[in-house]
UniProtKB/TrEMBL annotation:
Matches recorded under InterPro entries: DUF501
Region of interest (Disordered), ranges: 217-239
Protein name: DUF501 domain-containing protein
Originating organism: Paeniglutamicibacter sulfureus
């Protein structure tokens, strides 16, 4: 990775902007509503999201080091197969024995941090000192989650994360960047997931969407009570 690629991202600014349709697709891919997604990190040739980008600080205030989340079910399943096959042990052994690879991997870590800072600026969260120098997936010295490395490789483009790139080559029989594998990969017919069923959220404070719905219901009830008996004299808003 040369200096010109220090902050390289696969998608340009316009393509990174998540549309409402993108967010719905992400929810369908993950089978839960997505939260705190600020950009799309990578897209299929058809345009569908492959990677969700999360700001370094969640709207709840919690620091969040894992910027890129692989969402495409075909890719996540293929990477899980690699992990189950023991690829991470091989990579860790190689990192210990190959100084050139280890150095490239450190550069990947630096790239990850630099781009995360840029995403923090763009999304308005700014600097997050709690996670300064902390990347994800085991970087800079170990491989602990191939999904993180593949998400980084897809979002950065080739030549930035050597082990993410290698994992992508290894799943070529199931997915390549040149071919759309979206058809049938997630449910496009059922209503999009609207209630978060993921475990990590259940342990947190009440979902903001639920709070908002509760406030709206309470407001409607107050208005209904206030209007009772005065329906004849009620005026249109702004009259
Ligand atoms: Zn596609």
């Amino acid at each position: 990775m040369d200096a010109a690629n220090q902050n390289h991202e696969a998608l340009d600014a316009a393509a990174r902007v998540p549309s409402a349709a993108d967010l719905e697709t992400l929810s369908r891919q993950l089978n839960r509503p997505v939260r705190d997604v600020v950009e799309i990190g990578a897209r299929c040739v058809c345009g569908n999201p492959l990677v969700a980008t999360t700001a370094p600080r969640l709207s709840s205030g919690i620091p969040f080091p894992t910027t890129y989340y692989l969402t495409h079910p075909v890719i996540t399943a293929a990477v899980s197969r690699l992990e189950a096959g023991g690829v991470m042990n091989e990579m860790n052994a190689e990192l210990e024995q190959d100084p050139a690879l280890a150095a490239e991997y450190v550069q990947a870590h630096e790239h990850y941090l630099a781009v995360r800072d840029a995403i923090g600026e763009r999304s308005g969260t700014g600097a997050v000192p709690e996670i300064a120098g902390v990347s994800a997936g085991g970087m800079p010295t170990r491989v602990k989650c191939l999904h993180v490395l593949v998400g980084h490789s897809l979002a950065a483009g080739p030549g930035v994360n050597p082990l993410g790139d290698r994992a992508l080559e290894a799943i070529a029989e199931w997915w390549t960047k040149d071919t759309c594998r979206c058809a049938g990969a997630w449910d496009t017919q059922a209503p999009a997931p609207s209630q978060d069923r993921s475990r990590h959220v259940k342990t947190q404070a009440v979902d903001p969407a639920i709070k908002k719905a509760e406030r709206a219901a309470a407001r409607a009830a107050r208005e209904a009570a206030a209007n009772e008996g005065s329906a004849d004299t009620k005026e249109a808003p702004g009259a």
